[in-house]
Design brief:
Distance between the termini: 30 Å
Radius of gyration: 14 Å
Low-confidence stretches: none
Order of helices and strands: HHHHH
Largest sheet: none
Helix content: over 70%
Shape: flat
Number of strands: 0
Length: 74
């Protein structure tokens, strides 16, 4: 549990440095399950990326869990 505090702090600082309000950062933390996608989502929103690009990169980033899930049931 102690790892969430520094990551949350780093995410808040990163979002604030990109110009986002604190409520947006809190909403992102509640709505997005994957922590690494939270950081990418802020970068994509700030750069103006399209929705399909965000979806594809998020899918590919979280596709690693596919191997962990199905590898455990062999």
């Amino acid at each position: 549990m102690m790892g969430y505090i520094p990551l949350g702090f780093a995410f808040g600082l990163y979002g604030a440095s990109m110009g986002f309000e604190s409520w947006v950062m809190g909403l992102t933390s509640v709505m997005v399950y994957a922590g690494s996608v939270e950081f990418l989502l802020i970068a994509f929103i700030a750069s103006g990326a399209n929705l399909w690009g965000v979806f594809f990169i998020s899918f590919m980033l979280n596709f690693r869990h596919f191997f962990l899930y199905f590898g455990a049931f062999r």
